[in-house]
Amino acid sequence: MSLRKFVITASLVAVASAASPTKASADWLLTPFIGATFGGNANLADSGLDVKNEFERRLSYGGSIAWMGAGVFGFEADFGYSPNFFQSADNGSKINFVGDGNETTLMANVVLGAPLGGVRPYVSGGAGIMKSKVDNLDQFFAKPTSTDWGYDVGAGVIGFFSHNVGIRGDVRYFRSLQKDQSNTFDLALGSFKFFRGTVGVTFKF
Fold first, then answer.
1. What is the pLDDT of residues 91-132, one digit of tens each?
2. What is the C-alpha separation between 173 and 163, in angstroms, rounded?
3. What is the 3-class SS of the chain, one letter each residue?
4. Which distant-in-sequence residues (6+ apart) come within 8 Å of 9 by Cβ?
């Protein structure tokens, strides 16, 4: 083979290799995050409390670990903690829980994420536990600590600025589930619900 044919052949192979899509790989994604809860409310019509049903915006932080396959499907465990979730600065117009009442969530989710180069938009949803703690037995819950089933749905996007590190923005909706003897599954939608918006650093490995 002449040098000219060799150069032309090598050039064609290089162009074809560059034009072909790269093979996707499975990744683990670890994301510590911080943000806030908002839009929360619960039905207190039967509680006897002369307050509105809305909760104030509160700090929230936690982390998630996700496994994303070579395609668009993945799984995720999400942990969130909101200290002073039930406390209100406005005693006259909103729910007012004193002390360090808090909300903890632990969810197992299915994730659908599109690998678009350095950007990965995604949606997620699943179920888990929602643990609420208040200091006064007369406020909202019959017990100081209540652990219920719940679900979450959300969406977000991860932008990678290097191969292994990126920034994630995420918004999720959480809602409790309660016992209901009228259906086969013995669960119905609860009145306690809220949104959570977070930003975090994602580490891919």
1. 555 555 545 679 999 999 999 999 888 899 999 999 999 998
2. 30
3. CCHHHHHHHHHHHHHHHHHCCCCCCCEEEEEEEEEEEEEEECCCCCCCCCCCCECCCEEEEEEEEEEECCCCEEEEEEEEEECCCCCCCCCCCCCCCCCCCEEEEEEEEEEEECCECCEEEEEEEEEEEEEEECCCCCCCCCCCEEEEEEEEEEEEEEEECCCCEEEEEEEEEEEEEEECCCCCCCEEEEEEEEEEEEEEEEEEC
4. 1
Distance CA 75, CA 73 (A): 7
pTM for the predicted model, two decimal places: 0.79
Placement of tokens 């299915």 in the chain: 110
